[in-house]
Structure to design on (367 residues):
């Protein structure tokens, strides 16, 4: 059983104070690096290409699958207390994807990809503060060649509460042992937040693969940490695979021998780099069209607050000896250094630079 000393209460009141401080310090995600607003007319919602009904931004990709992987556990693997009065409701769409880390390089990102699936069911959560035994049915698919991570016993959940005006916030901090096909030790680290108003009990927390609002007191997030739940620098941090509530942004490139569209959903954050998901790439290379929506073949890595953005995509089949395309140093404001486009091999190493002739940015949907 995990050491209960790992778990430390995190009062929601402190989170709210930090949120207010972050809003003052960082403003919103539409500001440029110098704090100025981007007034480029190309981002106008009146642009015909900015229709919310643009079929080319289809959300149909492998992140929408609902079938459980063969190595996933049953809902009966849940461990908890039948007297608990709070509830986590998990739907068949509860699939989450490991996101980028700005401290890594674009070339490092593929080996940190992973998908986490919560098993559909209704699971009790503690309604009183303290440390309890708990195991949440979950399974994780790691990057190619790394296998999968599965449950490896019962973990602990630390429950804390805090108040703000008429609301009571419940925070459940889960640490659960996992193992992979090589018998390596992993830890699933989760935070589940519920909110109650007045004397009412909190509504069930729904896990359906969607992304919570940055300003909400409810939501969930998970990390998979190697060796130790308290040391997760080399971990995988999971968010919505396709957060449809986020702003949809598009970078469009014209380069020697082709064109490229890159669609990314951009969230909000009080102070940290905003959550985001690279969901689609489409274009043409040397006369051959392509489109990619697979999470595993779309790679993204930004600098802090996405001031500079690096993208890569892998084709389903090679085009002219290239496994994919890399576009680096992109940003919404056209700042230096200039963007660059390369054809790449399957390890994202450059094959040939293609001269970038034109670059544009547009926000397709508002926040």
């Amino acid at each position: 059983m995990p050491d209960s000393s790992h778990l430390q209460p995190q009062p929601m009141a402190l989170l709210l104070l930090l949120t207010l401080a972050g809003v003052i310090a960082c403003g919103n995600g539409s500001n440029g690096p110098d704090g100025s607003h981007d007034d480029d007319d190309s981002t106008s919602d009146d642009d015909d290409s900015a229709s919310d009904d643009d079929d080319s931004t289809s959300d149909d990709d492998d992140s929408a699958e609902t079938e459980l992987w063969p190595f996933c556990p049953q809902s009966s693997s849940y461990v908890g207390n039948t007297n608990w009065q709070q509830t986590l409701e998990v739907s068949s769409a509860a699939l989450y994807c490991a996101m980028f880390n700005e401290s890594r390089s674009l070339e490092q990102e593929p080996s940190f990809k992973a998908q986490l699936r919560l098993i559909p069911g209704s699971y009790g959560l503690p309604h009183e503060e303290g440390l309890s035994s708990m195991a949440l049915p979950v399974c994780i698919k790691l990057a190619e060649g790394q296998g999968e991570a599965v449950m490896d016993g019962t973990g602990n959940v630390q429950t804390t509460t805090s108040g703000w005006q008429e609301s009571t916030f419940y925070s459940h901090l889960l640490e659960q042992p996992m193992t992979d096909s090589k018998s390596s030790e992993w830890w699933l680290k989760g935070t589940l937040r519920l909110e109650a108003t007045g004397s009412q009990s909190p509504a069930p927390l729904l896990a359906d693969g969607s992304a919570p609002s940055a300003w909400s007191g409810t939501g969930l997030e998970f990390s998979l940490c190697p060796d130790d739940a308290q040391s997760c620098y080399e971990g995988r941090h999971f968010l919505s695979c396709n957060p449809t509530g986020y702003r949809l942004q598009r970078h469009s490139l014209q380069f020697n021998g082709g064109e490229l569209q890159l669609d990314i959903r951009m969230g909000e954050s009080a102070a940290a780099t905003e959550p985001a998901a690279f969901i689609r790439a489409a274009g043409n290379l040397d006369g051959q069209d392509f489109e990619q929506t697979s999470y595993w073949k779309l790679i993204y890595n930004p600098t802090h607050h996405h001031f500079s953005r690096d993208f890569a995509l892998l084709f389903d089949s090679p085009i002219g000896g290239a496994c994919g395309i890399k576009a680096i140093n992109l940003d919404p404001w056209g700042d230096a250094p200039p963007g660059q486009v390369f054809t790449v091999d399957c390890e994202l190493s450059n094959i040939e630079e293609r001269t970038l002739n034109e670059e544009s940015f547009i926000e397709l949907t508002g926040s």
